[in-house]
Specification:
Layout lengths: L1 E6 L2 E6 H4 L4 E5 L23 H14 L7 E3 L8 E4 L20 E4 L5 E6 L3 E7 L4 E7 L1 H5 L2 H13 L6 E5 L9 E2 L1 H10 L7 E3 L5 E3 L1 H12 L6 E3 L24 E6 L1
Parallel strand pairs: 4-7, 5-6, 10-14
Antiparallel strand pairs: 1-2, 2-3, 3-15, 6-9, 7-15, 8-9, 8-10, 11-13, 12-13
Length: 268
């Protein structure tokens, strides 16, 4: 499960199920950093309009609080696509202090390297974590509505299977804090795209009237994982809503686009 932890004013979530099996996995809150104004306080997104110096300081604070080596932090550009990239030692540190050095046009990262820490950034989209405990493979994926339609989570698992011989019965996945179905309102055009791409969608798409639907992205992703062969007991859900929990989370939709980013973090 996702469990809240705190070091002074630095508050974060840790995935206990991963920890018990030798993998460190976290999700940051918005608390414990130095950013000001709309980005207060632990904004970790270099692609926002926050001061770059503040964001880098926040990333270093995060690494320090979690006992991680900042030079090992590796990130992707995140373009709402479905590219899955295998991170090797030569990629170590990309995107840590400079957004332009991030791994290009990529929304999912996997690695087997012990000296690399993967970071991915969020403010409503769904953070996905992957861990093959037998082959010691870890991964992260950024799955907004575009990534979910493109089934990026399944593409990570397929990449792990093809490249590293992962078995679905050995893989653990986690679904982090994201905007919940109660607040994720979409129009008929987007709802139709989901109806056309997924069967049994009625449990995850509720009609409100007047060209409006409520969409359950985390629920759809869980459904995909179960169909792929991930064991129910190996799917860890945070069930936390970024939109409604303003005290702890940034939300792109709630904050009308001017907001910070939390990070999903995983390392062996």
């Amino acid at each position: 499960m996702f469990k809240w932890k705190k070091k002074n004013n630095f508050r974060y979530l840790e995935i206990e199920n991963f920890k018990e099996r030798g993998c460190k996995a976290y999700f940051t809150s918005r608390n414990g950093g130095v950013s000001k104004g709309s980005y207060k306080s632990l904004n970790l997104g270099l692609h926002t309009n926050d001061r770059k110096e503040a964001v880098i300081k926040n990333r270093k604070i995060t690494a320090n609080k979690l006992n991680l080596n900042f030079s090992s932090v590796t990130s992707a550009e995140q373009v709402h696509g479905d590219r899955v990239y295998i991170v090797e030692k030569k990629d170590k540190g990309k995107g840590s202090s400079n957004y332009s050095s991030s791994i290009k046009k990529t929304d999912a990262l996997i690695t087997t390297a012990n000296n690399i820490t993967l970071f991915s950034y969020y403010a409503d989209c769904v953070p996905l974590y992957f861990y093959d405990k037998e082959n010691r493979i870890i991964g992260l994926a950024h799955s907004g509505w575009k990534g979910t339609l493109k089934k990026i989570g399944l593409k990570v698992l397929e990449k792990m299977k093809v490249e590293f011989n992962s078995k679905m019965s050995d893989c653990m996945v986690a679904i982090g804090p994201a905007i919940s179905k109660d607040f994720y309102e979409v129009d008929n055009k987007l709802a139709t795209k989901f109806k056309n791409n997924f069967s049994n969608i009625n449990n995850y798409l509720v009609y409100k009237g007047k060209n409006s639907y409520l969409l359950d992205l985390p629920g759809i992703i869980k459904m995909m994982f179960l169909k792929k062969g991930i064991k129910k007991e190996n799917i860890i859900e945070s069930k936390m809503c970024t939109y409604s929990n303003e005290e702890n989370f940034y939300s792109y939709r709630r904050d009308k686009g001017i907001t910070g980013r939390m990070a999903s973090i995983i390392t062996l």
